[in-house]
Write a structure and sequence with these properties.
alpha+beta; about 190 residues; 2 domains; single chain; elongated; three-stranded antiparallel beta sheet; PH-domain like; four-stranded antiparallel beta sheet
Length: about 190
């Protein structure tokens, strides 16, 4: 799926929004430190105890190797899920491309004039350090929310989306909405 082939005539991309490397670092910690290192420690511990029991040790070693391979496969599929998620903001619409597993991609879009509310949030210690957070977009449709996590500078991204929406509304000759005085909104 090539998103650039789906652009309307005269439409141009304003911003392509991808996840910050912080998302991959969290995935690395979950995969390597919590799972693979734990299994390696168990195998090393039991290998010293069960050196005399050859068959049991071989079964344990085989099971551990299969578990580690399974963890690498899981980590790869999780990385694919994170890597190929993106928002594409054009001068006419917002496109949300989401990778669901290894072989499934979903694409949602909304016209900028349908966007009602955009929130940029930074929660937590590490997110404040790296300036990463979530962007949530509410559209005119009932219960349709576009959300992307681990975005760099989410409040600035939310502000840019609202700016592009206002430009689009002005171009169409529609009334500009008033922004509520909510601290989450940008």
């Amino acid at each position: 799926m090539n998103i650039y082939d789906d652009l309307h005539t005269g439409e141009f991309i304003v911003l392509e929004i991808r996840k910050h490397w912080n998302a991959y670092f969290r995935l690395f910690l979950k995969t390597v430190l919590l799972r693979i290192v734990l299994v390696a420690a168990v195998v090393i511990y039991f290998s010293k105890l069960l050196v005399s029991s050859g068959t049991f040790f071989q079964i344990l070693l085989l099971a551990s190797v299969l578990y580690i391979l399974g963890m690498w496969w899981w980590a790869y599929s999780q990385w694919i899920d994170e890597e190929f998620d993106c928002f594409i903001l054009t001068d006419e619409r917002l496109i949300d491309v989401t990778q669901n597993g290894l072989f499934s991609i979903s694409q949602s879009e909304t016209n900028l004039d349908h966007i009602q509310d955009v929130k940029g949030r930074i929660n937590g210690f590490w997110n404040n350090i790296f300036k990463t957070g979530d962007v949530e977009i509410q559209t005119a449709a009932h219960n349709v929310i576009f959300q992307m996590n681990y975005i760099y500078n989410p409040k600035e991204v939310a502000h840019l989306i609202l700016q592009q929406r206002d430009i689009r509304l002005a171009k169409l000759g529609l009334e500009l909405p008033t922004h509520p005085a909510n601290s989450d909104n940008v």
